[in-house]
Design a protein that fits this description.
This is GTPase Der. InterPro entries: AAA+_ATPase, G_ENGA, GTP-bd, GTPase_Der, KH_dom-like, KH_dom-like_a/b, P-loop_NTPase, Small_GTP-bd. Associates with the 50S ribosomal subunit. There is one protein chain. The protein has 466 residues and is of the alpha/beta class. The chain folds into three domains: 158 residues, Rossmann fold, CATH 3.40.50; 174 residues, P-loop containing nucleotide triphosphate hydrolases (Rossmann fold); 113 residues, 2-Layer Sandwich (GMP Synthetase, Chain A, domain 3), CATH 3.30.300.20. Helix content is 36%, strand content 21%. It is built from 13 helices and 15 strands. The strands form three sheets. Strands 2-3-1-4-5-6 form a six-stranded mixed β-sheet, with helices on both faces. A six-stranded mixed β-sheet has the order 8-9-7-10-11-12, with helices on both faces. A three-stranded mixed β-sheet has the order 13-14-15. Strand 2 and strand 3 form a beta hairpin. Helix 11 crosses helix 12. The longest helix is centred in the last third of the chain and has 18 residues. The relative contact order is 0.08.
Amino acid sequence: MLPVVALVGRPNVGKSTLFNVLTRSREALVADLPGVTRDRHYGVCRLGDAPFVLVDTGGLSGDEDGLDGLTARQVRLAIEEADVVVFLVDARDGLMAQDHAILGELRRTGKPMLLAVNKTDGLDEMVAMADFAALGFADSLPLAAAHSRGTDTLMQALKPLLPEYVAPEEETKHDDGIRVAILGRPNAGKSTLVNRLLGEERVIVSDVAGTTRDAIRVPLERDGRKYTLIDTAGVRRRARVEEAVEKFSVIKTLQAIAAAQVCVVMVDARENLADQDLTLIGHVLDEGRALVIAVNKWDDMEPYDREQCQRALDRRLEFVGWAKRVFISALHGSGLRELMSAVNRAHASANCTMTASQLTRTLEKAYEGYQPPLVRGHAPKLRYAHPGGHNPPTIVVHGTRTKHIAPAYRRYLENTFRKRYRLEGTPVRIEFRDSENPYAGRRNELTDSQKRKRQRMIRNAKRRKN
């Protein structure tokens, strides 16, 4: 296993900024507000040829109640699995009582530690570092994470503290498995589902809406298959989004949709299907991702309420009738096997292998069964089809006058291909292309006899006119 390094400190000392710099990514959400990070965030850094795992954690505020207490629990889990802890402090704030409290807790763990003094840019470095001499570290490292200053020194200081990493003899290609994004409105049960699938308290779960802010990626292996679960922040209507942090969280969610292969949209069965749920599904369709609808909190509902819920889903989700609907309880774990089976089927459909000969035969049968309506007295001709890509399956149809084909006929072809290949849980895109006229732009040159005949016709026309 790779060595693990945890970044620990008070809120708003720059842990997420340093995480992004060291991992050379923008995975962690960064804002000039305390308490933005709540869950553990993992990334891989390279120290020469020896990689290690870096863990970004939430800030320890000293409060053990509510979300602060749940965040502190996630930090302690990160410290427990770490090989080295980087204790981050803020040079602009100076040494604070909470720094002493955090340091005391870290020393009781017996883990190797480094002291990194961040935000030294624009300050007298010697004066800023002298304030933290009372913590008792032989060496403290000045940093300016926002400007990537001092990070090379930090990496070199980590090198002797990390356990030796022995690379495997046969380097295999890293496989993240199926990337599954868990989407939904706030408090729909996304984090509860992730924890239930993992069998551990990996992300914070709270009754407070908007607990999750970052898009957290978590590896999962279930029934011999690998997955990467992406727990996302709940998305509300734009009119209700006021805080800048929530706006960035929504952007992270949209990026997670683009990065995923299968999207699971969670719907609260005890609430009416909201317009925001449909908007999320619309984003999934725009990205062309496979889709599974998970109806959560199905347990303890009365038969009448369940019937009304199903009718509402049938009525409002008619435009994605091809998406599998699974009724689950993330809290109690019911329906999770059916959910993962639906994810597997959707992923297989999105990456279905098609051949040009099979597609063309299917197109010919569909054309014989029902021809497109006439356009100005002429019927569009569909000649052949071939695959145009995966995830989503894209079918390119060549013919004439295809620009005038009605949307209803496009849906007819889509349903025909979907039935032929048993495509479930994935959108199907059909692109029409007009065949080019081989004589377009070519001028017909007249022979000498044709030119003489033309001249005679012009003279005769003038005589008749006179």
